[in-house]
Amino acid sequence: MRAFELDPRLARDTELVESLGLCQLRMMKDSRWPWFMLVPQRNDVSELFQLTPLDQALLTFETNMVAAALKKATGAEKINVAAIGNIVRQLHVHIVARSDGDPNWPGPIWGYGQAEPYEDAAKQSLIKSLTENLVS
Amino acid sequence: MRAFELDPRLARDTELVESLGLCQLRMMKDSRWPWFMLVPQRNDVSELFQLTPLDQALLTFETNMVAAALKKATGAEKINVAAIGNIVRQLHVHIVARSDGDPNWPGPIWGYGQAEPYEDAAKQSLIKSLTENLVS
């Protein structure tokens, strides 16, 4: 079995936070929303239902763990969870914190405007806050 | 425990296809995309992670069963699966068949344009095709 290969566009648009049991937890390089991504470390899978049943259960567990932590870390009104993949076909799950008044609220974030880079301090602060809530 | 109460907007915008173990499988009244929805029959839940672990597992199972059936039924390029809920807070999972050239492809469907009603024959044909693939 060959080693997991991350899609080049995901590699470019996100950065690694940490590796969980199944997925890489990655952060979008876009400060407009607290926007993370889970990428199952499996090659040649584009749809959730192509994962094995065990991997489906692991992905559900990791998704909900990260979503709950992101809610705690941000106090957001709503967590958006989505596996879309119309452009990048490698399976990836978006986990995004949304609040009234954020860009394009209450519409979707995908395809909206241009990414805005993080200030390093803000980025590190969000990562710290998320990962602290992951372990609690 | 009070009986499950469907959000009035979901009731208006969708119609019941059938009840699965946890969820109502519903179809959006919008012919632009093959667009279904799973609504867990649980009151007062807006986030995936608020479901019990068993319900999370059931929802994963039902989501992937419907997504796989929708892929077979439509031959779509990509199935989009999303729990957003910025407007309607009752937890609901969108399962949508997307293909190159459909409205707003490869962008998201949410918040795009206006719903277009189905011709009854087209609606019944899609429901039949989906549910046949659900049982196989």
UniProtKB/TrEMBL annotation, chains A, B:
One Pfam family linked to the record: HIT
Residue ranges that the Swiss-Prot or TrEMBL entry lists as coiled coil: none
UniProt keyword terms in alphabetical order: Hydrolase
Signal peptide: none
Domain HIT positions: 37-105
PROSITE patterns reported in the protein's UniProt record: HIT_2
GO molecular function, a single term: hydrolase activity
Protein name: Diadenosine tetraphosphate (Ap4A) HIT family hydrolase
Organism: Rhizobium wenxiniae
Lineage, highest ranks first: Bacteria, Pseudomonadati, Pseudomonadota, Alphaproteobacteria, Hyphomicrobiales
